[in-house]
Amino acid sequence: MTHQNVIRMNHVSKSYGKKRIVEDICLSIERPEILGLLGPSGAGKTTLVKMIAGIEEVTDGEICLLGERMPRLKLMEQIGYMAQSDALYGELTAKENIYFFAKLYGLRGKTMKGQCEKALELVGLLDDQNKIIDTFSGGMKRRLSLAIALVHHPRILILDEPTVGIDPVLRNQIWEQLHELKNEGITIIVTTHVMDEAERCDRLGMIRNGRLLALDTPEGLKQDTRSQTIEEAFLFYGGGAHAQ
Ligand SMILES: Nc1ncnc2c1ncn2[C@@H]1O[C@H](COP(=O)(O)OP(=O)(O)OP(=O)(O)O)[C@@H](O)[C@H]1O
């Protein structure tokens, strides 16, 4: 199987009014991997992933997913997007929520049930599926959002700070699952502030003031900057992210 050009970003910039938020980013992903975007608050990570997901338009440059220029409606079913804030129906159960989104993606019948169950199992929510969302903790809501993002088996999964509010044990499990999904051929883009998560990405893009300062494996970044840790490497590039 060839996996050429899963994602290609060509001189991508974004402005709101006169303010430049993302500045001339070039980046390409040619085979399934977990690409982390690390940067301090306000660096432009969310804006960048929204453009990749086709939710925001680029001001300059272009983004192609699977060889097609974004935004493109027909590509939407190839993309799973988990926003930073959960978009769930509070008065419905977890199961009702995930069924709702699965149906939006055109899933029906046994396939829908099976995929919903698998996604809920993946995030450890199978036993809580009949509970009302308003009774869920923040971490449970994040996990449900993650299950919803991957229920339709997208080829590209875009996760904006997926593990905020999730305890270390479950966070670890989720990262193991993300690596399994990658091994199944899914490309994952994940934004994070958390240094131990950054270490678990195949490649890491360091972002500050809307610019991609460096892009390499975590090991490569450490070697290039003669750093012991990713945080040190990030500081070398003028970053200011904090460890958690
Ligand atoms: N719709 C908008 N209009 C104007 N400015 C915006 C808009 N959306 C984002 N910004 C600005 O763009 C900058 C980057 O925001 P963005 O959310 O992309 O950063 P981030 O790296 O994801 O930060 P965080 O980690 O805190 O989520 C911020 O200064 C923000 O105020």
From TrEMBL:
Residues annotated as domain ABC transporter: 7-234
Pfam annotation, one family: ABC_tran
PROSITE patterns attached to this UniProt entry: ABC_TRANSPORTER_1, ABC_TRANSPORTER_2
Name the record gives this protein: ABC transporter ATP-binding protein
InterPro entries xref list: AAA+_ATPase, ABC_transporter-like_ATP-bd, ABC_transporter-like_CS, P-loop_NTPase
Keyword tags: ATP-binding, Nucleotide-binding
GO-annotated molecular function: ATP binding; ATP hydrolysis activity
